[in-house]
Amino acid sequence: MIKNSYHIPVMLQQSIEGLRIAEGGTYVDATYGGGGHSEAILQRLGRGRLVAFDQDDDALKNLPDDKRLIFVNHNFRFLKNFLKYHGLIPVDGILADLGVSSYQLDMSERGFSTRNDGPLDMRMNRSAGTDAEAVVRDYEAERLASVFRLYGELRNARRIAGKIAEAREIRPVKSTRQLIDIIKPLAPRGRENRFYAQVFQALRIEVNDELGALKAFLEQSTEVLKPGGRLVVISYHSLEDRLVKNYFKAGNFEGLQKKDFYGRQISPLCPVTKMQTPALDELKENPRARSAKLRVAKKNRGEK
């Protein structure tokens, strides 16, 4: 049993149902975090195996004393390599909750929160080189604008980048509070918090190459799953969800459906449920789950 869980597992029942856990099977929790989803998998697993990935060292604090669990302290973009190393290919199911944990948001020193002052860090892996301070300091205004436009989906990305470029000429931008003070004049009235969240999201995605990692993970998932195996992904913003939706439906990130000679769609995966969102009861207990979207797919039987 996990004693120090720091993350309320989002859409727990739906994700476990989506996996259809078989007693004695092999499963992957690609985003261990506080261990809530892993705990639920282990409770249903019998003599099976669970491989859990998390690049954040803080996740180590929540590991249970359970011989069925193999913990990998790396990004899930290395899914196939580590499963191959442990001799656990193919697997029966994979779960990925792509959100930032409540623990990470609440720790001001991690720099993820727009509400608490802290250093401009935002690294999921704190041993990685580039943090958000370096992005804000070193990127030219045009490149910074591209980050805000692509990853924050902000229409006034150029103005935001310009404000930051002007401010850093006066003094270094080192804290989350400094950054918010700089961009505050550009925040739409009544939508300030969403605006700040979009700016922080853009920096976080850039710092951690989150979309690149997600693409690598999805492609490798189809390679390591058994035919009929399940892939469950919980995403939190449109950029993630679009990649997941397109890949589940078409086997590529553009959503371009390919067909064989007989007109049958070619794709390694097949969606098995409609997109799901949290129930009202869950949102009352955990408001941070409000943007979550869950999708489930299974590997087609003809795929190797």
Calculate the mean pLDDT score and round it. Answer: 93
Distance between the termini: 36 Å
Cα shape: globular
Number of domain units: 2
CATH class of the largest domain: Alpha Beta
Number of helical stretches of at least 4 residues: 12
How are the strands of the largest sheet arranged? 3-2-1-4-5-9-8
| H-E order | HEHEEHEHHHHHHHEHEEEHE
- The share of residues in helices is 25-40%
Structural class: alpha/beta
Instruction: Give me the CATH superfamily of the largest domain.
Output: Vaccinia Virus protein VP39
The largest sheet is: 7 strands, mixed
Q: Which percent range describes the beta-strand content? A: 5-15%
Number of strands: 9
Descriptive account of the structure:
The chain has helices spanning 12-19, 36-45, 79-85, 102-106, 132-138, 141-151, 157-170, 176-183, 192-208, 210-224, 238-250, 280-285; strands at residues 26-29, 49-53, 69-72, 91-97, 225-235, 258-259, 265-266, 269-271, 293-299. A hairpin with a 5-residue loop joins β6 (258-259) and β7 (265-266). The chain has twelve helices and nine strands. It is an alpha/beta fold and 304 residues long. The protein folds into two domains: 12-102 and 210-299, Rossmann fold, CATH 3.40.50; 106-208, Putative methyltransferase TM0872, insert domain (DNA polymerase, domain 1, Orthogonal Bundle), CATH 1.10.150.170. Strands 3-2-1-4-5-9-8 form a seven-stranded mixed β-sheet, sandwiched between helices. The protein has a two-stranded antiparallel ribbon with strand order 6-7. The longest helix has 17 residues, at 192-208.
